[in-house]
Fold this sequence. Notes:
Elements: H1 3-17, H2 21-27, E1 36-45, E2 48-52, E3 55-77, E4 86-104, E5 108-116, E6 126-134, E7 156-163, E8 166-169, E9 173-183, E10 188-196, E11 200-201, E12 205-209, E13 216-225, E14 229-237, E15 248-254, E16 298-305, E17 309-311, E18 317-327, E19 333-341, E20 344-353, E21 360-370, E22 376-384, E23 390-398, E24 406-412, E25 415-418, E26 425-426, E27 429-434, E28 438-446, E29 449-450, E30 454-458, E31 464-467, E32 471-472, E33 477-483, E34 490-499, E35 505-510, E36 514-515, E37 524-534, E38 538-546, E39 549-550, E40 554-558, E41 562-565, E42 569-573, E43 577-585, E44 592-600, E45 604-612, E46 615-618, E47 624-633, E48 637-645, E49 651-659, E50 665-672, E51 677-687, E52 697-703, E53 706-715, E54 722-731, E55 735-745, E56 748-751, E57 755-759, E58 762-771, E59 775-786, E60 790-791, E61 795-800
Amino acid sequence: MNRTALLLSAMMLGGLLAAPPALAALAAPTAAAPVTVSVAQAEASPARQSGDCPTTVGFSAVVAAKGKGVVRYRWVRGDGSKGAVKSFRVDGARRATVRDRQTFERSVTGWQAVEVLGRKGLSRKAYFSVTCAGGGELYDVGHPLPASHAGRPVIAAADVDVTPPAYTGQCPTTVRFTATLQVSRTPARVGYQWIDGAGGESRPEYLDFPAGGPRLRQVSLPVTVSASTSGWKAVRILDRAGHDSGRALHTVTCSSTPPTSPPPTSPPPTSPPPTSPPPSSPPPSSPPPSSPPPVVAVPSIVEIDPGDHIGSCDTPVDYRATGILALPAGPATTVKYAWGLDGRQDGVEEASFVADDKPRTVRVVKTWRLTKADAGEHVVSLRAAGGSPATKSFTLTCKETPKPVVTIGEITAPAYTGDCARVPNHRARAVLSLSRPGEIEYRFVIDKLAFPYRKVSVTGGSGVTVESDAWASATSGTVRVEVKNHNAPAKEAAYTVTCAAEPKVTVNAEVAKVTTHTDCVRPHTFRGTGAVGLNREGTISYRWVVDGKATDWRTVTFASAGEKAVSPHEWQAAKTVTGTVALETKEHNRPAARKDYTLSCPSAWLTDAKVDPATWSGDCSGKRFVFTAKLHSTKNQNVRVELVEAHSGSLIDHADHRVLAHLPETVTMNRFFNVTLKVDTQLRITSPAEGHRSQIIPVDVTCHKVTFSDVKATKAPNTCGNWALSGKITLSWPASLSYRWARRTAFSTWEGDWVTVNAPAGVKEVSKTYTARSRDNGQFRLEVRTPYETVSSPAGYQSSCSS
Length: 803
């Protein structure tokens, strides 16, 4: 190194070391009250899952801090890896929810916990388990996501590539991640977020796929890497039906950085400078031999948090810059460096490097607190002794904080229905929301009666529910909520009071009228049923009264208005009687229900009434239908029995009988029905005039007429034994016709195959061909099995052919 370079290096290093007192004071740490920190509610979501992979698991914990300062933390994992160090500032008491998310491509069981830097131990471990059911479909540029039709849910898939996946060389360098997002149909909007192996999840982002456009789009994420590192990134689809990407792995190995000032080049030995003296007598002005030039650390700024800020500056905004000082392999040493902001250099600090045969890096951090007066673009610089500074810019944009707005949500006003004998008490509720954390001063006003103002703190989110004091009212009215501060909104809702009517009892009862078919020697049992009702809750007493004889009182309880059945009551009678049964109550309006009951014991009656046949389908010519019944009497007397149409009472037939006491006699009536009919009949006694009727006797008659004509067997001409059978079957009614040609010989009975067809009314011609043996004779006839069985007259045949 020449003398000029040495002088410049010394001047720069001297400038760094001789920092002004003000800058030195700025660089000195200020004393702060210690911050107490606790971590709770560490959990994984979902803690257990199984299905296709890749998939993601989210982790969260609540960090509670009290004091003033910065809390630095990171996630520690069961596999030994650690996440990036993150921080938040606390001034007083604060609860912060910290999160992480990891992508898994295969089955795994593990845990994650939060480590607070400067505090021993870890938080409670959040255990998780991922079971991969299969490899799952991986969709990329070469394997497109299948299209779906309109009306089907949109499915999205992601794939991530990294360029280069492995890098060795000078740093800083850029590693570029490219995410390929696909959808099953357009239009669609896909929500996604980047997942980093160290940093966890980024904020959600959205990508639109317009109608008619391509179903595949790509987004790029360049990352500047200034030191040797390795890791991965993935993309998570926010929709549950989406397919997450796998991990895109990358490795960066930074080689030694060349010095910022190249060493001087020696002149060629064959052409020495003309002014050089002979080697044996060097000029006196030549510098003495010097040691190798010192190695200068190369700085880089890798992160400024929070970067470009757009928002409120009502409270100072804390910025944190992270830099890296890089040295090639060598012995242990210290490097002096200084941070700067907008050209103003802070105090000089030292970074220690350990001896190593590989390139070395040291991470350095600097914080600034900016206010509203500092709005604008800023440049952060990091300079190492003897080297050029690294710079990185950011912009602080301050926006006016909107005034807090109170919103009164739903007011839950009472809607009372019930007894108003005692004036009911009521309470109302309301939901109050504030556009940012703060305090709301409110009151309830009931029917122009204002309750005192109260205060409630709101942290944001879905709002807070407040409740009024109790008030008594037997009438409807208005609930009003008034807010005193902020935008002072007000809102009201009606409350209702519906007083139940005076207690009222209802009652009903039923008893069947009974006519016996016996002489009433054995008592007949009656059964009364009923129900009582009440238009409110309460208890009702009831009892049954039969012909003046009452049962004991019983009770039925109502939890609300309604009607309930009471226990039935049974009693007996053994003679002809007409009486009254009552269901009585004794509370409130004390209603009662009364019903008559009747028992009739006739002197003559019929049993076992029937007809044979009850149903008939066939030829009705001369078909007899026989009606029979057993006739009973309690005394010797003449009895007339009539056969009538049950519903109209039209007379069909009648018979007179002399019957003796207690000696049953059979009544028989014959009828002929020549037409199709379906009728309900009944036998009734018209003398004595007690009006007894038998049970219903149904009759179902379908008349069919089947006749045969032109049944014959004709020998075919010029043949020996071929016979043509023909005939006609005439139906008087459409029917399912089952018939056959039957043959009989001296050695066999009537035989033949049945044929079934649906035949209309009229003539149906049937035929068949029969081939006889050389000597054969017998008879043919037509037989019908349905609609009823009948046969035609036979037709003979005779075949006597010589061989």
